[in-house]
Amino acid sequence: QAKRDDHAHIAFYDARAEQIAREYIELHTALRQALDEQEFQLHYQPQTLADGQVVGAEALIRWQRPGHGLISPLSFIPAAERSGLILPLGEWVLQEACRTLQRWHKSPATASLTLSINVSTRQFHQDDFIHQVAQALQLSQANPRQLKLELTESLLAEDLDKVVDTMKALANLGVQISLDDFGTGYSSLQYLQRLPLHQIKVDQSFIRELLNKNSKDTAIVRTLLSLGEAFGFAVLAEGVETREQLNYLCQLGYTEFQGYYFSPPLPLTQFETYCQRHID
Ligand code: C2E
Ligand code: MG
Ligand code: MG
Ligand code: MG
């Protein structure tokens, strides 16, 4: 009796594993096709000062999948990273972002904004990544200083010398470098002083608990700001959702914000309209 149940159990998991494998292959095929069919688009989330003045944007990818609607990066970026498709996809994001910067030069409301893109660790480690960035900038004639690359701490887990070299080469092109989701991963304070960083983004998980009485996150959020001051990089608070969070962060000395309190990520033309409405 027990034995038969066991078998049923195994058969169940086999079927489940098979289904996961099949879904993965289907997703991979669909993603490859989506790239050819140009079904990806970037949305733009404002990065602002406390009064709402827009100083930059983060480009966030979406997949307009026929019959499925708009798909979040959380449900396809991990698969794209595993399959290697993140490399052509990431290059498209880079080129599209540079085209957007070029377009923004034509309007006073957007001409001086920075634009941040997310760069996967695997993408960063490509031999020709620096060349890709240089070429995208050259083709678009975008100003390198307005392009910001968001990297994650997972990058720092191996071969730090090589990472530092690549970062320095990128910084020499004039682009800015930001560490995303800061505080959630592998951050050795010792490493920080070796990196040519322009910004860290304090992860939204720290902001979420900030006003909770028992939370220790105030200490962390305060410390990260002092770190920025000591090492000379800007510190942006991510995931700001309420006026209370904003006020508290201002009290702590924060000056740059991103989050639903100001705006969700918007399609390009809506973002541009938002900027028109928030001049000065
Ligand atoms: P991320 O880079 O940390 O981006 C911030 C995420 O938080 C975005 O989710 C954004 O929509 C969301 N967010 C913004 N404000 C708030 C807020 O106030 N509250 C909350 N709860 N969330 C907020 P999204 O667009 O779903 O992107 C998720 C992640 O997917 C990104 O996290 C990034 O790691 C990855 N991603 C997005 N676009 C790209 C891309 O072009 N390339 C790569 N490699 N990864 C990307
Ligand atoms: Mg990001
Ligand atoms: Mg982030
Ligand atoms: Mg994140």
Task: Give an overview of the whole structure.
Residues 24-279 form the EAL domain. It comes from Nitrincola lacisaponensis. Keywords: c-di-GMP, Membrane, Transmembrane, Transmembrane helix. This protein has 280 residues and is of the alpha/beta class. The protein has 11 helices and 10 strands. Strands 1, 2, 3, 4, 5, 6, 7, 8, 9 and 10 form a 10-stranded mixed beta sheet that branches. α7 (189-192) links the parallel β6 and β7 (199-202). α3 (86-104) runs parallel beside α5. The longest helix is centred in the N-terminal third of the chain and has 35 residues, at 2-36. The chain is globular. The mean pLDDT is 92. The protein binds ligand C2E and magnesium ion (MG) (3 copies). Residues 180-181, 201, 238 line the site of one magnesium ion.
